[in-house]
């Protein structure tokens, strides 16, 4: 996040939520937003599902899955047409305004109405609201990123925030609500193929830091992404995979393909606290101490480093993950793994990235100072709001506005990008973004399908399904396939029926919940449950050209009603593939699905 | 009963939790009062999501896939000593790097684990010459 999450409560005049189911996935951030509304802030929610937050919003726009760029471009079209953009902010701080102007000119609010049924007047009202309020904050999550045009979606958000100057002040900003407890930290610690703490791997600074501190020559070529892994294994380019604290068999798209690729590895090492679906197919499994059994730090979505004490002793023999990894490194005779405490590890992070973390000491965070990076020295109070000087990280300090278009078929993207760059006479290397659909409904797979989470569980359920209060107390429905009312009418499937959802990649079976909250022709299910994991059907073939993200939020599928016998047959197949515990299945089968109302 | 102020292990909000521990077992969780992030409130997962720590299904011993006492792809996961598991993992990694290249090893790091864990994990790959480190933030 560019800003601190508490500013939703204290500073924002408009909270603009797109592709985030905030009250289920970030309940306490939703609480801060609702406090903001009590203070008088307006709430706009844009999502294919009418979520709890959508029901509380001043404006709710129900878009089809993936209809992000046409809507954002239409908002900018109206803002520019009405002269509501912040010309002074653009002149002083941005480059590329003429590119954006050119690209949004065909996206009118009327076109949105024609394509989605959302009233053009509503698009105009929310656009004017965003541009006019003193402080508008844009919040989003995976409902913006997990698409074949995920990066272009984020460019579009950034364009909108910049042309209206809604950045660098309290209550404004571009605010991804980070999913996992330490996803910000994992990125900042260099668990990405292009970056180490200290900079991108090809930069002089990163090379120098690695040489001075790690005493090694850092490879200057960007490594493989996880989305490329199955193919890289099949081509013989990856022989050993070491997975720690992740369950990619369930969380990565196209489960069958992922499992098949892993079977071709020379060695598969998994380090985890449970025998997850991934650990079950490993060659060697290393257990470790978990949360509360080890001391260390997390980095939250507002970039704040927080301290976690060790509260209990782990079972005999269990070490913290960092220590297990150091043990392996020492046995390979690698230099620089003689750490005795997590504080020593953190102090090396501070040396590697002093501009970011130099001033964040264990002493300060143990005293509960809430410090957001960058925090370069021990007197520095941290940086809760980024870009307060309206300067970007680019060498010239200017923010780049990126031209973003939208094409009907994904094969037209490259031609569009080339044409745009030529038409606008853009300098070489200046990015052009383009939206499109990764898959469109077909005769065999006539429905759109999307995925998400429920408030009761987290991710692949490895931790939450081991908590009885959540698994058996709160979550009374278990795995459910939610469908829009038009699919129900067309197929005759009713709430409580068994159904199978399938496409060329796989199938899952579960009870159905017909919901009026879903945009038409759409199926929704979660990836919490090994016995019905949406990712078995998810698209791993298409990638976002910038980030290599797979479009796991958008796939196509067919649905048909099945009887209990067929349901059980599919579940047995799934059990053989995913091995959920016997306990889960027994507790699931007898429970009817409750009716829901809008 | 001892109280520890810690940070929730679920979403990225970073809510602070007062954890109460008795006889080396967590007995309850309460929201930290007046903390700027969650201000005395917690969601369902923060309040009740700690039970997994004491689950009987937690792994406590390393495992290697074996058939008739030796490593085999067709074998079953069997309990082994820490020395055997660590030596095995280290020797296989060393061999792949030597026989193929540093680019033939890849690691998936963890957005669930500590900064310190993640830093050491990526360093293990980087010092061997591989940038093939990623994690589920990509998805």
Give a brief rundown of this model:
The complex is a heterodimer of chains A (598) and B (139). Chain A is built from 25 helices and 23 strands.
Describe this structure in words.
The complex is a heterodimer of chains A (598) and B (139). Chain A has 598 residues and is α/β, with parallel strands linked by helices. Chain A contains 25 helices and 23 strands. A six-stranded mixed barrel of chain A has the order 18-22-19-21-20-23. Chain A has a five-stranded parallel β-sheet with strand order 3-2-1-5-6, with helices on both faces. In chain A, a hairpin with a 2-residue loop joins β20 and β21. The radius of gyration of chain A is 24 Å and the shape is globular. The two termini of chain A are 32 Å apart. The model of chain A is unreliable at 580-598 (pLDDT under 50). Chain B is built from three helices and eight strands. The longest helix of chain B has 18 residues, at 82-99. The model of chain B has no long low-confidence stretch (mean pLDDT 97). Chain B has three domains: 2-54, N-terminal domain of TfIIb; 59-97, no CATH class; 100-139, no CATH class. In chain B, a hairpin with an 8-residue loop joins β1 and β2. Chain B has helices spanning 44-48, 82-99, 115-126, and strands at residues 2-7, 16-22, 25-31, 63-67, 70-71, 76-79, 105-108, 133-134. A three-stranded antiparallel β-sheet of chain B has the order 1-2-3. Chain B has a three-stranded antiparallel β-sheet with strand order 5-4-6, with no helix packed on it. Chains A and B meet through α3, α12, β9, β11 and β12 of A and β1, β2, α1, β4 and α2 of B. β9 of chain A pairs parallel with β7 of chain B, so a sheet runs across the interface.
């Amino acid at each position: 996040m560019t800003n601190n999450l508490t500013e939703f409560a204290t500073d924002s005049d408009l909270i603009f939520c797109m592709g985030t189911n905030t009250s289920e996935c970030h309940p306490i951030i939703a609480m801060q937003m609702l406090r903001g509304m009590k203070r008088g802030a307006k709430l706009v929610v844009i999502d294919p599902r009418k979520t709890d937050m959508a029901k509380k919003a001043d404006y709710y726009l129900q878009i089809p899955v993936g209809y992000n760029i046409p809507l954002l471009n239409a908002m900018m079209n109206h803002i520019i047409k009405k002269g509501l953009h912040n010309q002074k902010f653009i002149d002083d701080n941005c480059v590329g305004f003429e590119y954006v102007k050119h690209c949004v000119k065909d996206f009118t609010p009327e076109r949105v109405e024609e394509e989605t049924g959302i009233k053009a007047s509503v698009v105009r009202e929310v656009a004017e609201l965003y541009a006019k309020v003193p402080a508008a904050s844009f919040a989003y999550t995976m409902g913006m990123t997990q698409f074949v045009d995920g990066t272009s979606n984020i460019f579009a958000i950034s364009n909108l925030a910049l042309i209206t100057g809604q950045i660098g002040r309290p209550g404004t900003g571009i605010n991804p609500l980070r999913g996992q407890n330490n996803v910000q930290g994992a990125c900042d610690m260099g668990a990405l193929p292009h970056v180490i703490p200290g900079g991108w791997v090809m930069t002089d600074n990163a090379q120098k830091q690695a040489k001075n501190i790690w005493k090694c020559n850092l490879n200057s070529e960007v490594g493989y992404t996880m989305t490329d892994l199955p193919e890289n294994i099949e081509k013989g380019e990856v022989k050993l995979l070491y997975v720690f604290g992740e369950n990619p068999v369930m969380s990565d798209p196209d489960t069958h393909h992922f499992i098949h690729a892993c079977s071709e590895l020379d060695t598969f090492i998994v380090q985890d606290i449970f025998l997850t679906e991934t650990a079950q197919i490993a060659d060697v499994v290393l257990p470790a101490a978990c949360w509360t059994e080890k001391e260390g730090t997390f980095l939250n979505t507002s970039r704040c480093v927080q301290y976690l004490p060790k509260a209990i002793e782990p079972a005999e023999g269990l070490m913290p993950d960092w220590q297990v990894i150091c043990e392996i490194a020492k046995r390979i005779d690698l230099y620089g793994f003689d750490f005795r405490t997590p504080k020593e590890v953190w102090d090396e992070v501070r040396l590697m990235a002093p501009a970011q973390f130099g001033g964040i000491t264990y002493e300060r965070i143990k005293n509960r100072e809430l410090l957001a990076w960058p925090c370069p020295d021990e007197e520095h109070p941290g940086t809760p709001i980024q870009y307060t000087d309206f300067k970007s990280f680019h060498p010239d300090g200017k923010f780049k506005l990126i031209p973003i278009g939208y094409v009907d078929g994904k094969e037209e993207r490259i031609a569009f990008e080339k044409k745009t760059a030529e038409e606008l006479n853009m300098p070489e290397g200046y990015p052009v973004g383009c939206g499109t659909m990764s898959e469109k409904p077909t005769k065999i797979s006539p429905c759109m399908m999307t995925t998400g989470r429920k408030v009761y569980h987290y991710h692949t359920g490895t931790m939450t399904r081991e908590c009885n209060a959540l698994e058996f107390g709160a979550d009374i429905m278990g795995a459910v396939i939610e469908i829009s009312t038009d699919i129900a009418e067309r197929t005759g499937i009713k709430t409580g029926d068994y159904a199978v959802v399938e496409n060329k990649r796989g199938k899952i079976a579960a009870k159905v919940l017909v919901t009026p909250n879903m945009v038409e022709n759409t199926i929704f299910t979660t990836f919490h449950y090994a016995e019905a994991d949406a990712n078995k059907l998810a698209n791993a073939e298409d990638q976002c050209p910038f980030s290599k993200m797979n479009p796991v939020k958008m796939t196509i599928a067919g649905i048909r009603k099945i009887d209990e016998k067929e349901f059980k047959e599919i579940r047995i197949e799934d059990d053989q593939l995913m091995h959920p515990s016997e306990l889960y299945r027994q507790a699931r089968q007898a429970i009817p699905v409750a009716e829901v109302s809008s | 009963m001892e109280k520890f102020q810690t940070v929730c292990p679920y979403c990225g909000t970073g809510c602070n939790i007062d954890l109460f521990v008795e006889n080396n077992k967590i007995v309850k969780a309460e929201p930290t009062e007046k903390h700027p992030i969650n201000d005395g409130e917690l969601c369902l997962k923060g309040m009740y999501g700690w039970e997994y720590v004491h689950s009987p299904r937690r792994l406590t011993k390393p495992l290697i896939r074996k058939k008739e006492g030796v490593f085999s792809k067709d074998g079953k996961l069997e309990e082994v000593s820490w020395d055997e598991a660590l030596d095995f993992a280290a020797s296989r990694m060393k061999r792949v790097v030597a026989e193929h290249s540093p680019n033939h090893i890849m690691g998936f790091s963890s957005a669930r684990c500590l900064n310190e864990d993640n830093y050491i994990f990526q360093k293990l790959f980087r010092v061997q010459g591989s940038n093939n480190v990623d994690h589920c933030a990509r998805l």
